[in-house]
Design brief:
7 helices; Dihydrodipicolinate Reductase, domain 2; 2 domains; Rossmann fold; 7-stranded mixed sheet; 15 strands
Amino acid sequence: MSKIAVIGVTENVGREILTFLEADGIPSEDVIALEPKSPLGNLVSYGEDDELDVFNLDNFDFSQADIAIFATSEEITKRYLAKAKAKNIKIIDCSGATFADADVPMIVAGLNEKILNTDTKIVAIPSALTTQILLPLSKVNERFLLKRIIASAYISTSVYGKDAMDELFNQTRKIYMNTTLADDEQVFKKQIAFNVLPQVGEFIGEETKFEWLVNAETKKVLNGNMKVHANCAFVPAFIGAALYVNAECAKEVDVDTVRSEMQKTKGVVVFDKQVDGGYVSLNDVQGEDDIYVSRLRQDLSVDNGFSFWCVADNLRASVAKNAFNVMKIMLKN
């Protein structure tokens, strides 16, 4: 059995990756849990009945692993990536540290994994938003060729990690207690509770980092030059991401065909009823493995256009599941 190292097991995505490994029946002795500067005796849950020792990443010998999944920050991945590469093991990068490397493919399992081969050593996993947009569109793109994508994203605080989620909780509690929020505006710099903030990531010119990522990652995954425009905002939710997506194709397409193609896509669930509550909302998908699509409509403002609403657990369905599926493909290869 292959030895799997997971870096970042106390982070949101790392914990979700462990749940996929355990659910797949991978024995605990074949999983190596790692964190920088992890103290002796640190443990992390592995399923309901087991725990893993969390080893110190700083002195870990990567030759003990067959594959390493970096589910931590970009900074930490860059710091330790060279050590893993030196041992010639397979690597999955969920942090974005290898995005700019031309020889590192960016993979959405179920969309473009066919480009992987036995020589592929490093794979980049796109951000949750990019996967959530592209997987429902994968079969549509094959038949009708995507020409333009406009995505408006409503993102939970989990993107910024535990500190951001704690800040939302503390602000909400203090508002109900009629207490000042002055000491609880550290992560977002503005009130996030009962508010919407049109900034996700630092500004890169007129765009924020996550708006730029959706554009750049989409083009890298699809290996194309379609036009992409993203708008990203934080909403006061703990987990999940919701998107309105407008797509325009090069070939004539109708919404019934789009619905049919999405229904055939593994990992995508279409729940679309034109009645009150006949759609999936952010609260419905926490802990779910799939991406849910609703509100499919023809976009009459352009030729060959349509729009849809989609929601997903951004940690689980859009990143951890993708990393897990890519891992299985790489180990099989």
